[in-house]
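Obj: model holo form, ligand = biotin.
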Amino acid sequence: MKDTTFIEKTLDFSKNLDIDFVKKIIVFDEIPSTNSKAKELARKGEEEGTIVIARIQKKGRGRFDRLWESPEGGLYLSIILRSDCPPNKATILTLVTSLVVSKTINSYDLSSNIKWPNDVRVNGKKIAGILLESEAHENKVEYIILGVGINLNTDANLLSEKIRLISTSLSEEIGNSVDYYNFLKILLFNFDKYYKLFLDKKYDLILKEWKNQSDTLGRRVRINTASEQIIGKAYDIDQSGFLIVIRDSGECKKVASGDSIYIES
Ligand code: BTN
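Output (holo structure tokens):
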């Protein structure tokens, strides 16, 4: 069912927003994917700080071309950035975003943590995911799209069984429905704070906070990348956000992206 008031309410909310990095909010009721729309707009020159929001996504995209199930009740947004950073630092923005989402959830008196690279989890279940997409030419970033999907007031019955078993929502965890705009405001406010640190190249500080918020380091992990499987101890995160894994052979391996699975030793 189309919710015609969603666009009006969200535009109203955006008028009263006083957050430095937010320049424009573009709202859709239903859309295939906010990341795809943001990418289309960025290619046409849309400015840094433009945010695309949708109430429902019909073809929400997750990492590795997976479907991100996006029924009503969730928060789906994509931020267009054009920060003048080297492409190897853009990946830090994934960590920034997972940190910001996790901290926003924590402000609801709920403990959340991050599973490398970007799964935000509560009680071992996924509550949010982040999809960073970017385009760079000759070592210069043209645009970065930061897509964030959060199960806010998501009714588990609207999800497939496979996803239902491994995910949770904020409303399920706190036992109450959550004010969408209040959450969004805290999220954007927190993003502004950490994005400023990123622009100031305070990478060490960001990584330190990310490590405090993550439960990955020190664990025995299996990482599935596009080309191989890496098993070992998650040892550290490097300056680009890559995970450093020490294999049983003692070999040190840096992993740029992949799915991490915690395993018993
Ligand atoms: C993942 O964990 O696989 C990442 C999921 C990212 C989903 C968000 S929802 C808003 C934005 N638009 C998309 O199509 N995907 C991202």
